[in-house]
Design brief:
Structural class: alpha/beta
Order of helices and strands: EHEEHEHEHEHEHEEEHEEHEEHEH
Largest sheet: 11 strands, mixed
Number of strands: 15
Number of helices: 10
Helix content: 25-40%
CATH class of the largest domain: Alpha Beta
Radius of gyration: 20 Å
Distance between the termini: 24 Å
Strand content: 15-25%
CATH superfamily of the largest domain: DHBP synthase
Shape: globular
Length: 355
Amino acid sequence: MTEKTTVRLELLAESLTTEPAKRALAQAADVLRAGGTVAFPTETVYGLGANALDSQAVAGIFAAKQRPAWDPLIVHISSFAMLDRVTASVSARERRLIAAFWPGPLTLLLPKAPAVPDTITAGRALVGVRVPAHPVARALIAAADVPVAAPSANRFGHTSPTTAQHVLDDLDGRIDLVVDGGPAWRGIESTVIEVGPERVLLYRHGAIPLEEIAAIAGPVVVYQRPGNGGASPESLPSPGVGIRHYAPRATVVPVEVGMELGRRERWLSALARHSDGASPIAVLLPTGWPLPEGFPGQVYEWGNWENDRELAQRLFSGLRALDNPGVDRIVCPLPAGTGLGAALRDRLLKAAREK
């Protein structure tokens, strides 16, 4: 694609009422209305936005990210009042979830309105919709007065961006503008669900744990992708169900460490196996965890192992920080598969799949 000059604007949540912020919002909103691409902060990760009702603008997202057409997008709206522009109907159970979790990191798959281009849904009848919790994201969408399609603002399949610099590392010269709102607060993408008459189908573990959704809407079933021998699908049923995603250049090596009893021994044993001197190694290291004596690799201080929110917020930044030419493998422990830990496991296991 033709190289662009990507404009970077600072726009922090705490300064939205200032005159410079109003000018920046107006500039970014003008780009969206004109059919351009704008990366912006959400509470989860940075998104790459375009007018969701303009098929040519949406095509700009796919081109910039090098994203295949079979992978659908999520549409972001600024308020409940914008819902009827993107969806044909909302059920009572879906409204209960909206009341509980919007604004916030929950994406609902809803019957799409006729105005939503098929390119957003990969030809499917349902469109993913959410209201982001980040004030900058909502202010930008409201100023543009259009629903905004926005996958993560990175090259397709690469580690998700949680800062404006991460966006530029992947997309500088490929998009029109990036709004720098500081680091993303959550660091893990939204949870994606479809609400059926008898159960909720969870397509992607995310920043709202399965258990919290079940408490509001009843039983939740986790989507299992059918095997297709590695062939590209005609379309995915939801954003976030690709086999390999969130991946750095280096090979990710997840380690099952289990419960507290024996964890230290399992962890040190795994590091010893992978510190063979044959190739450079790096480690996502929880606070206070041991390293073998004379450990030769790079280390990123991941955070408190007992604090899933801290681990989530720092996960993608850690993978990006360690992903440099001096590193061949990134070793990291796998959190337990409950609560937010399920989303962390999902990201690490998908990042670890064979290239």
